[in-house]
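Action item from last week, closing it out:
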Amino acid sequence: MGLLLVLFVLHPFLAVAQIQSLSANLRGQVIDENVQPVPRVEVTFHTESGASSTVYTDAAGRFEVSGLSSLHIRMSISKPGYFRIDDRKADLTPGGNEISIMVNHETEIQEKLEVQSAPIQIDPDSTSHQESLVQHEILNTPVAASHDLQQSLRVIPQVVADSHGKLHVAGARQGQTEVLLDGFEINDPATGAFSFHVNVDSVRAVTIETGGYGAQYAHAGAGILALDTQSGDDRMRFGITNFIPEVNFQEGAHFGNWYPRVTFSGPIEKGKIWFSDALTIQHSFRLVKELSPGQNTDSQWFGDNLIRVQANLAPQNILQGSFLYNELSDPALGLGAFSPLSTTTNKQSRRYFVSVKDQIWAGRTLFDVGVALDTGHDNENPLGTATYVVTPSTASGNFFQALAQQPRRLQLIGDITARPLSRLGTHTISAGWNAAGIDFSQQASRGEIDFYSSATNSSGIQLLPPPASTLTEVATFSGPSAFSISNTQIGGYAQDLWRPTKQVVFSLGVRSDWDRLIHKNVIEPRIAMNWVPRDDGRMKFTLAWGEHYQPLNLAVLAQGFDQRRINQFYDPPSNPSDPPVSAGPPTVITFITPLNSLEEPRTYNATAEWDERFFNGTFVGVSFLLRESRDDFLTGIWNS
């Protein structure tokens, strides 16, 4: 009787112990076809009882789930830009289990056996506002110039183009957006502009982040534009597009627009070393009907080539490198209805970008180290030495300036992503550093500029100068014709992604950045919170605030070392046949760069966002971004 009573009392505890012994814990990692870890992948588990749960991989592609009540589960894996895996069966054992899952990039979208991923996902751990384009969207979305990646970027809601065709993200200037190519900064070293080109077929995905992004980004005052390019796989692939040139028959037969693209990729050693090569050639023909025949055409040649190599030196060591080359030739830059051929310049430009990155695993800690060199040469030369003459409606002579510029940047990066820690919830801690040496040199040769007022005859037809028009101003230049300016940038960060409960996620980070030019340091705190009120993860609220450093623009600061402009103004003579009369002493324009009194420019970004998924593929979201800039630079002008 006593034994039965004991068994009756212990029965619930024995049942719980039996259930716990039958439950399973699963730890895994998601990798791509090149054994690279894939972050932010949505992994959904379905048990035999119909219950489901969803987790997302961290920055190192890892995920963990505990307390699975069934040993026979089905998994679905999805991320934009990768083929989706649906209902993959997995048999687990009681206790701990480990699994590795491979996902493939959406490369061959024609294959009907593959299932493409959803274009959007709600990630409870991501606090930044993101917009993205994956490869098939980039290639299949109709745009004005499908060979130009920047044209495709315009379909992203937060990207707009100005009257000169330059892209702006979330209303910011170009230099306020950090542009990354496979993890390395590739903004123009001197201006911060998007001046590089890559083959549109080589881009796997483009991601834009505005507001709420982490402390790992060094120079993102207003946002990040990240490009992920292809590195090849175990299958040989070859593609060619737009290979047949166009013939233009305007005012005779001309070699017209031609935009061929060639891609070639495959294994050097299967399962270990892969390569990819993507080449673009662009020939643009332009005819200006307002100018005289033979003086009204411009043919521009441009080319880019991106080579990538990845080598898996060991299961825990992945080495990758890339080389990007851009070249431009335009013998009549600036040709237009009011700028005849003689006033144009011959522009020749080259740019080289070389990078090497090594990913090393030590246990469950991921180390990323890399180095990149970005250098270029830009030369613009006038077509002669005649004086440059400007009137209100046209120009004549030869352009006044010959210019040679060379920007250069050497950058070093390092990042550490530690294994998740358990204390008052879970923590994913990351830290890193960056250093860059930047220099910008210029050699200029400038001549005289003569400004004339317009003059007309009795019929109202404008007459060309001189002597029909009146000289109003003469501009000359003085001072050193060459200069060089350099800077060193050093920064570091630490960040904690803390999940105290299943519904709440905090992202806590801090950066520190220092510039040698102005010898000042800025500390940038960043904080964000996600609230996921429903267990199915179909709704998310985000609040974020951060201080963001805006890097120095060397092209602006360099104006303080450039030549002075001397303007001599003239009054019209009483008799048109007399020489012009000086209006007084000349005016000297000098740009001032007070390096010792400058503060590091920065922006303060606050964001609020709501996202929700309805049904299986309908997403609705509302976001708010408030950005405030402080201590931005305005170059002073001194007149005498």
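Closing note: Residues 1-21, 109-115, 456-466 have pLDDT under 50 and may be disordered.
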